[in-house]
Each structure stands twice: as C-alpha cells, then as structure tokens.
Design goal:
heterodimer; A: mainly alpha; elongated; B: mainly alpha; 15 helices; globular
C-alpha cells in the first residue's frame, strides 16, 4: 500500500521534471506543427481535394487555381499526394523508433545486466553495425531484400537498434550497482523482476528522449531510401519518392518542392520536441543520449 | 605508445569483423545474385548458371569461400564487378578520391563554422544569440539532404547559373595528372591554376549542402562540450587570476572541450559519407556514393562488398585516429 503511494509520487515527480521543458516557445512550436501533421494524417481522406492516385489530363500544371500545389507529370494533384504522404512517413517512422527502442533496449539491458560473454557478443555486434555509415548499410540491406517500404523499415531497424542498446547498457550497468537494486536481488527477486521493477524506471526517460530525437532522423532516412528508389514503390504517395519524381522536371519545381517542405517541417517539429525534452534531463544523461543522433 | 598499440590492435580486429560482415551479408540475402547478374533468360538455363557459379566460386562451402575472399582482399583483389566486368579495386580507386575530396571540403567548412557557432552560443548562454543559434542548428538538422541538394542545384545552377551543377570539372577541362586523386591538390601540384579554380568551383554547391547537416550537429555538440568545461574549477581559476578573456576561451575552455568535439568529428564524417550517397546522385559526382547506389540497386555483390569494406575501413581508421588524438589532447587518456 505505502509502496504504491511512493511509486505514484515518484511518477508524478518525474512528469513534473519533464513538464517545464514543454513550456518553451521551441517546444510549443514543435508540438503544434507535429500535432497539425498528425491531424492531417488522420483526416487525410477528407482533407485531400483529389484522389492522390488519380491521373488527370492537366499535366504539370503550376500551383494555383484548382490544383493549389500544381500537378505532376501524370496529372496527379500534388497537394493531395502531400497530404496522403503524411499517412506513410510518420506512422512508419514512429513504428520504427518504437521497434528499435524495444529491440535495442532489451538487448542492451541483457548485455548490461548479465555482462560477461552475453555482453561481449551483443556489444561487438553493435560495434560492427556502427562500423558502417547508416544509409550505406541500410541501402545494401534494402537492395538485398528487395525495394519496398517494409524492407526499408526492416533495414533501418537493423541499423538503428545498436544506439539504444549502448545507451540502455550503460544506464543498466550504473543502476545495477545501486544499493536498493542489490537489496532487491538479495531478497530473492529474479533477474526479470529486478530489471522491470528496479532498473527500468532509471532507464526509461533517457531512452525515451533518445527515441524522440530519433523520430526526425528516421523520417529523413526513410525518405532518403525512398528517394533512391529503395523504399516506397510507385504509385505510393511517399514524400521521398515524390521528390525523386521531381528530379527530372526542373521546370516544374513544385513537384519536388512541396513534399520536400513537408519532410522538413515534420522533421523540424520532432527535432524541436526532442531537443526540448533533452533539456529536461541532467547534463550527464545528455551525453549518453547524444551518442548517435544521426 | 602502449595505448596506441592497443587501439591499433582493436581496430585491426574490427576490420576483420567488417570483412566477415560484408561476406555474411552478401551471402544471407534472399535475392539471388546469379539471377541479378545474368538476367532472367540466362538464369533459366541450368548449365549457364552452373558455369557462372563455378567461375565465381559460388559452389564452394561458405567457410572456404570466406577464406578465398579474405586472401583476395588482403592482396588488394576485390573481385570483378558483375555489372561492368571491371575490377572493383580499380573502380573504387577512381571513386574514393572523389568522395574524399567532397567530404574533406565539407568537414573543414563545417568544423570551422560549427565549432565557432557552438562556442559563441555557449559563451552567450541563455541569451537571444544562444536561442537563435539553437534554432538555426536544429533547422540545419531537419533538411532532407537530397531535397536541399535539389533546391540549391535549382537556384544556383538552373536559375542563377552562378555555380556549375554537375561533375568535378568542366567538360572541356582535363583532369590533372593523378597524384592523390583529389583534383584540387593534384592541380596545385601540377601548377595548373585554371584547373584548380575549376575544381573548387565545382565543389562549392555539393560541399555546402553536405556541410549543412554536420554544421548543425557540430554546433550542438560544441555548445554542450564548452558549457561543461566553462563550469570547471580550472577555468574559474584562470579567470579569477585575471587572464585576458581571449586566453581563457581559446587556451583553456576550447582545449578542454576539444576531446568530446573530436569524438563527434568521427561521427560527423560518417554522417557525411552517408550524405554523399544522396548528394552525389543529384550532382552526378562520380564518387563512392554514386557507385554504392548503383551497386546496391543492381545487386552487384563484389562491388557492394568492396564499398562496404572501404567505407568500414575508412570509418574504423578514422575512429582510431580520433582515439590517438584524444591521447595527444588529453594526457589523462594515456594513463588510463
């Protein structure tokens, strides 16, 4: 009973610590833009004036009039495609970040808690992934699996879990030496219980901040893979693929300009939020979090 | 010395690890390299497939294949591209310097600006200058590189025409005699000033686009590194004993902040190598990025392995350099 009250109080304190970070203009701007994009994604079918896949005879129409953002080389409405694109990039990027947080976090916790051979094996694999620049490894894996959005996300998961594993491992190692953790183990708690009840609360917020900082990076990487033709396949209205469509059409600048702006504003919003959140942590944790934000 | 030796040993081990990874990766992939190389028609004929597999050693057991591969790599033989039928080592030899030139130009540019901005923001902490630099650097991290490359290309080449849009030199220029493979350096060695300026001209757009992301990154890191040092006792002591502010900032603060900043430089170089894939495609820069993209999309296994190896080696080499530099800058590292 009293333990419940204690944990509740601790929880409230943790949120109080994070809350001021959201009252800065930077965070408010970020949250507003991100919320707008989430709304756009949810209500895309209602908001889009045209079917994003419907082709029309009005090809390469400049912005204005009926087509606010113009039309592309096969007469599809750019505005509708940008709006529908929000339903691809954001959910996938968020899913990817959650997946790498779970995979990397679990592996990192196992490595940090059990140490020895398990630690060595997991962390050396992580080192190897780190030995390659992300997009080159992701590109090779996606190309090998075959170009598709799913495979692009799988490839990105393979390259992005080690960052979480490293951070979690170092946090777990310092947490498991704490007296109350040792006490719990002496009372006979299983490793699983110790990790979940005593260690997890220490690890959660830095890893969460890392994840928030990572959303923007994930959107950029996914868009980059699509731009290279390795992610979304036509005719999907993916932002990266749309920019790629515009490469050949320099006189029709609007085809690439608007989806690019969409990527930019979403990524910027998440970067603003992530950066504000990081401020709420102490400077020591900042270093751990900054480990690999690219 | 012992510190350097240990680091070197670890780096060499990691490089062997990279050869294993590139090898396994290309063997684990579900896509069939035989079909990708031969095309569907030829792949339907079992005798052609068998001959191809035998020619490329694909009928050997995996471990044997790995040791043949390792032996070849150690002798500078990276195999023959299944697409162009050229030795991968030769193709890489012409692609790597192009990318190094681009990445070096970008990293020099972004280091100067990034560290400068970071230092300035830290010294003016919690003022409007700090806030502006923070927002600007976050925005710098938010552009999709490939899109920015296009916009810059469109504005400065297509509309204004002030900078050349593609390639490393004008079509009429002849590449300088090869020494380092970097056109700017080679043309200087040969004393060809015209070619030098031409090469610099071609570097401006792609290098600036590449630099923008790393400028954002370095600014953020430099700021937090400097802030941490500013708070230390020895800096306060230096100020307290009346040293000029310039001496304190550059002699004490910046030197103390260099270690974390240098770590990021290693990471930033990796980000640059990633960025080159996207930028080189837009600017028809015949470097590693363009080459790796072509190799990956055509499943050209020897070429992919070659790129993976080179990039992995460069990356590990850089991190080794960073570790050694630590020791030079921070004597404490040598003891620990």
């Amino acid at each position: 009973m009293s333990a419940d009250i204690l944990t509740q109080r601790a929880k409230r304190r943790r949120w109080l610590k994070i809350a001021p970070a959201f009252r800065t203009p930077l965070a408010i701007t970020g949250i507003t833009i991100a919320a707008l994009w989430v709304l756009i994604a949810i209500f895309a079918p209602i908001l889009a004036p045209f079917d994003p896949l419907a082709q029309d005879f009005d090809r390469l129409m400049p912005p204005g009039g009926e087509h606010l953002f113009g039309t592309d080389a096969v007469g599809r409405d750019v505005l509708s495609r940008v709006i529908s694109g929000a339903r691809i990039s954001m959910p996938l990027a968020l899913a990817l970040v959650v997946a790498s947080m779970v995979v990397g976090g679990t592996l990192g916790a196992i490595a940090g808690y059990f140490g020895r051979a398990v630690d060595e094996i997991i962390m050396r694999i992580a080192d190897l992934v780190f030995a390659f620049p992300t997009i080159i490894l992701a590109m090779v894996i996606t190309a090998a699996l075959g170009p598709s959005l799913t495979n692009a996300v799988i490839a990105m998961l393979i390259v992005s879990w080690p960052a979480y594993a490293r951070v979690t491992r170092s946090l777990v190692i310092s947490a498991r030496r704490q007296e109350y953790v040792v006490a719990g183990r002496l009372l006979g708690n299983s490793p699983f219980t110790t990790l979940r009840r005593d260690i997890l609360p220490n690890v959660l917020s830095p890893v969460f901040v890392l994840a928030m900082l990572d959303v923007g990076t994930a959107i950029l990487l996914l868009a980059g893979l699509s731009f290279l033709g390795l992610g979304a396949t036509p005719p999907l209205p993916d932002w990266g693929a749309m920019v790629s469509d515009g490469v050949q059409q320099f006189s029709a600048w609007w085809i690439a300009a608007f989806p690019g702006l969409a990527i930019f504003t979403v990524v910027m919003a998440f970067n603003f939020i992530g950066d504000s959140l990081r401020d709420s942590l102490d400077p020591r944790a900042q270093d751990a979090v900054q480990g690999r934000a690219m | 010395m012992r510190y350097v030796a240990i680091r070197l040993g670890l780096s060499v081990l990691l490089m062997f690890g990279v050869t294993v990874v590139t090898f396994i990766l290309t063997n684990l992939v579900p896509a069939d390299p035989v079909q990708a190389a031969l095309g569907e028609q030829a792949a339907a004929d079992p005798s052609i497939v068998a001959k191809f597999r035998a020619d490329n050693g694909l009928d050997q057991p995996l471990v044997a294949q790995y040791f043949t591969y390792l032996n070849n790599v150690l002798h500078g033989n990276f195999g023959v591209s299944t697409q162009t039928r050229m030795p991968v080592a030769d193709e890489l030899a012409s692609a790597v310097p192009a990318t190094i030139e681009l990445a070096l130009a970008a990293i020099v540019f972004s280091t100067l600006i990034g560290i400068g901005l970071g230092l300035w923001a830290a010294l003016k902490q919690r003022t409007i200058i700090d806030q502006v630099i923070r927002v600007v650097s976050l925005i710098g991290l938010s552009w999709p590189t490939f899109w920015l490359a296009l916009v810059v290309y469109y504005v400065f080449f297509f509309v204004l025409g002030v900078f050349p849009g593609s390639g490393r030199l004008d079509p009429v220029s002849i590449a300088p005699p090869q020494v380092t493979g970097l056109y700017t350096v080679d043309s200087l060695i040969a004393g060809q000033w015209g070619t030098f300026w031409d090469a610099v001209y071609h570097l401006v757009l792609p290098a600036s686009v590449l630099a923008l992301y790393t400028i954002g990154l370095l600014t953020r890191f430099a700021r937090s590194a400097v802030l941490e040092v500013l708070d230390l006792d020895y800096v306060k002591a230096a100020t307290a004993k009346g040293l000029p502010r310039r001496t304190v900032v550059f002699g004490y603060v910046l030197r103390g902040a260099l270690v974390p900043i240098i770590t990021v430089l290693g990471l930033a170089f990796g980000a640059l190598l990633s960025g080159t894939v996207l930028v080189e495609k837009v600017y028809s820069w015949h470097g590693l990025g363009e080459y790796s993209f072509a190799a990956a999309t055509k499943l050209d296994l020897p070429a992919i392995m070659g790129v993976g190896l080179i990039v992995g080696f460069v990356y590990i080499g850089l991190n080794f350099l960073v570790d050694v530099l630590y020791g030079v800058i921070d004597p404490r590292v040598r003891v620990a």
